[in-house]
Amino acid sequence: MVGAFSVGLYLAAHEDGRLIVRSPSMWRRVAVRIAVIAGAFSVGLSLAARAQDVQVNLPDNNAPNLGNHTTESETSVARSGPLTVVGYNTYRQVGLLGAGAYTSLSKQPIKQILLDTQAYWDHERTPAHVRENFLRIIKCGTIALGAEVFASETESKLVFHTCKSRFCTSCGQRATEAWQADMEAILPDVPYVGITLTLPIEFRPIVQQNRHILDGIPAMGAEAIQQWAKARYGVRLIVLVVQQTFGGFLNFVPHLHVLVSAGGLMESRNRWIHRLKYNERELMCAWRFAVVAFLSEARKRNLLKSSLSGEELLNMLMTQYERPWNVFISRNGSKTYRLKHDGRYIRRPPIAQHRLMRVGNAQVEYLAKDTKNKQFVPKRYANEEFVNLLMQHVPHRGRHAMRYFGLLSPRAKAQLWAGIFVLLNQQRRPHPRRLCWRWLLLKTFGIDPLQDSLGRVMHRIGRRAPVTAA
């Protein structure tokens, strides 16, 4: 089947009888390389499907040593005066609040909806990764996760721990901004191109039934682009892949946003080629071949669950291989713009809270984004229906929101990154220092949260252990 696909890939590269690639051997090399990668990833699918969940979270920067256990005596708190309660995530919604104030859950609609529907999803039949993330979100910024105690001579304050879930609106926002700042420092100052790679609608049920396939899709997209660039121009690219599973209506629409350098490194001549012309049709052919070869290998190894028979699945793959797919290539832009655009939802839920509105106690209205007509459309759901929409986009443990390939892969960075900056006549920049919660709030809102009413600085004096509801 791989041989048939490689022939089809070469034939698809002809348009109106005009050869738009260098030679048949170019596409054969691309096809063979992609087929090898697809086979290697399909072998790992069965392992990925059975792997235990492992969540990698960002460190808690609320205060030093923020474990969820009591480490210091709090006897001094009672002598320090009135106690102010502060949770980090409250600031994103309404700004820095005054002493003794708190944010109502109505200001956090996703958390409120999850609390209202907890009986619907908090049971063993809910996938473990979904249930865990939802529980962490409703506990975020509450005593259920514990708190740090800060005090001055006259006042004291509780600062609740946060959940660090990628699906949490406040924690995810902060993590996204930190990632964008890191990438701003890491990437060289060259133009970048955004490439969007989509899947046919017929593939969505298969991917949804076989979520472990999502682990291999980013590698297929990156390999298709890299092999095309190598065959067409003989260069290596900077490639960053952000995978998304949602569309404007919160439906399951898996696709890739790929940040690619507009130029590439030609190692044979030790040169940086500044301008490459990305061809949508050629990239579509490479992407289409990569995905179909990947799914074909998985089918051959009996790693796909589907209501279709083996023959029906094979016929569907062949049918979709013969039709054009949607691939979009943006104009060249700065790294700042591309990181802001492609990184919007790497560690955030697929919706912005300001687009949610409660309608009574049992319904929610959501401003859906109709990309086809370029407008926002109000959609109304029962609470349980809305939670079901959210469930399908909660990331599994250990699944990376972004992937690095080409010159941005760890091995290539270690070997070539210094030389690339020399060729570009640029200086490498250090990683920006992560701001702790106090300085982040000071930078954002201009108010020091650890300054009491008399202008004195509060110091950490203890910790409150998590308190679970009875």
Task: Kindly describe this structure.
By secondary structure, the protein is α+β, with helices and mostly antiparallel strands. The chain has 2 domains: 2-52 and 171-350 and 393-423, no CATH class; 83-163 and 435-464, no CATH class. The protein is 38% helix and 18% strand. It is built from 16 helices and 16 strands. It has helices at 2-12, 24-43, 45-50, 90-94, 109-116, 118-121, 128-139, 169-186, 204-209, 217-233, 280-300, 310-321, 335-342, 383-391, 410-423, 437-445, and strands at residues 14-15, 18-19, 83-87, 147-151, 156-160, 192-198, 238-246, 252-261, 264-266, 271-273, 327-329, 356-359, 363-370, 375-382, 402-406, 459-464. The protein starts with a helix and ends in a 6-residue tail after the last strand. Residues 1-24 and 46-105 have low confidence and may be disordered.
Main attributes of the structure:
single chain; alpha+beta; 16 helices; disordered N terminus; 470 residues; globular; 5-stranded antiparallel beta sheet; 2 domains
What's the topology here?
Layout: H1 2-12, E1 14-15, E2 18-19, H2 24-43, H3 45-50, E3 83-87, H4 90-94, H5 109-116, H6 118-121, H7 128-139, E4 147-151, E5 156-160, H8 169-186, E6 192-198, H9 204-209, H10 217-233, E7 238-246, E8 252-261, E9 264-266, E10 271-273, H11 280-300, H12 310-321, E11 327-329, H13 335-342, E12 356-359, E13 363-370, E14 375-382, H14 383-391, E15 402-406, H15 410-423, H16 437-445, E16 459-464
Parallel strand pairs: 3-5
Antiparallel strand pairs: 1-2, 4-5, 4-16, 6-8, 6-11, 7-8, 7-15, 9-10, 12-13, 13-14
